[in-house]
Amino acid sequence: MQDVIDIHDLTEQEILDIYALTEEMKADQPAYHDALSNRTLLMFFAKPSTRTRVSFEAGMTHLGGHAIYFSEEQSQLSRGESLADTAKVLSRYTDVIMARLFEHETMIELAEHADVPVINGLTDLLHPCQALSDVFTMREYGIEDGPLAFVGDGNNVAHSLMQICATLDIPCRIATPEGYEPDTTITDRVAGADVTITNDPAEAVDGARAVYTDVFVSMGESAEKKAAFDGYQVTPELMAHGDDAKFMHCLPAHRGEEVATAVMDGPNSIVYDQAENRQHVQKAILYSLLTV
Ligand code: CP
Ligand code: NVA
C-alpha cells in the first residue's frame, strides 16, 4: 500500500489488514507508542475540519511522531506557487502527507508529485478514511453483513461507502432525490456489486441494519441545494423500516435537517463511536504506510 486515496485502490485483504492493526491500536498496545518517533505528518487543509484534523494530529502523537497543520490559504500556494513544487518540497521535510482538498484531481496530482505517501482526508468525490472507520464500527456492532442504507446526497461519503461495501460484499442501498444520485464514475466502478440506487428512502431502509446520512450541503456547495431534500430526513418513522438499525453519520450533523434529533441522540445512534474510530483506523493507516 503506497497511498490511501481511493477505496477502489485497496484490496479486500489490505482493508482487513488495516482492521487487524486498528484493533491493536484501539487496545493501545505499548509496542506502538514510539513506532513513528521522529516521523512527521504534514496535514494539508484547503477546507475546514474538526475530526480529521484532530484525530490525525493526536493519533500521530500517540505513535510518538509529530504532525504539522498546513493551511492552503496561509501557504505560498495562495500566492501562485505550483502544487508540484509544493509537493516536492513538502516531501523533503516530512514523511507522509494527509490532504483535504476540493477537486479529486488535485489529490491525484499531489500524489503524483509527492515523494512520500499521501492520504486522502476528503475530496469533493471521496472520503476513504471515513468509510474505512465506518465499516470498522459496523464490525464492532456485529452488523457488517448489512444492508447499509445511505439516505441523502449522493456525495463523497456515499461514494466511499459504496466502494467499501462493494469490496467487502456488504449490501448497500443509496436513496437520494432525483438529480443527486451518486456520480457515474463511482456507480460504474461498483457495477456487479450488491449496490442499489433509488429515490425512495423507505425502500432503501427496508430491512437495513445501519442507516447512514450526511449533510445535504457539502463544503464548498451552495445552501440553495437544501430545498431538494424535503422528505429525505432520517426520522424515527424512517428508522422503523430498518431491522433494529443503528444510526450512522460521519458528522458534523445538522439536527432537524438531514436527521431528527430523536434519531441522532437516540439509543441506536453510534455516531460518536464512528468519530472515535477515525483515530484508531488512521493510526493503523499511518503505521502501515510508514513501516510495513
Ligand atoms: N467526518 C469528518 O471528516 O469530519 P471533519 O470535517 O470534522 O474532519
Ligand atoms: N459531505 C461532507 C462530509 C464532511 C465530513 C462534506 O464534504 O462537507
Give descriptors for this structure.
binds phosphoric acid mono(formamide)ester, binds norvaline, 2 domains, Rossmann fold, 292 residues, alpha/beta, 9 strands, five-stranded parallel sheet, single chain, globular, four-stranded parallel sheet
What does this structure look like?
The chain has 292 residues and is an alpha/beta fold. It folds into two domains: 7-127 and 275-291, Rossmann fold; 142-269, Rossmann fold (3-Layer(aba) Sandwich), CATH 3.40.50. It has eleven helices and nine strands. It has helices spanning 12-26, 51-62, 83-93, 104-113, 128-140, 156-168, 184-189, 201-205, 236-239, 261-264, 271-291, and strands spanning 40-45, 66-71, 96-100, 118-120, 148-151, 172-175, 195-198, 210-213, 246-249. The strands form two sheets. A five-stranded parallel β-sheet has the order 7-6-5-8-9. Helix 2 crosses helix 11 (271-291), helix 5 packs across helix 6 (156-168) and helix 5 (128-140) packs across helix 11. The longest helix is centred in the C-terminal third of the chain and has 21 residues, at 271-291. The mean pLDDT is 97. The protein binds phosphoric acid mono(formamide)ester (CP) and norvaline. Phosphoric acid mono(formamide)ester binds at residues 49-52, 122, 130, 250-252. Norvaline binds at residues 122, 155-157, 214-215, 218-219, 250.
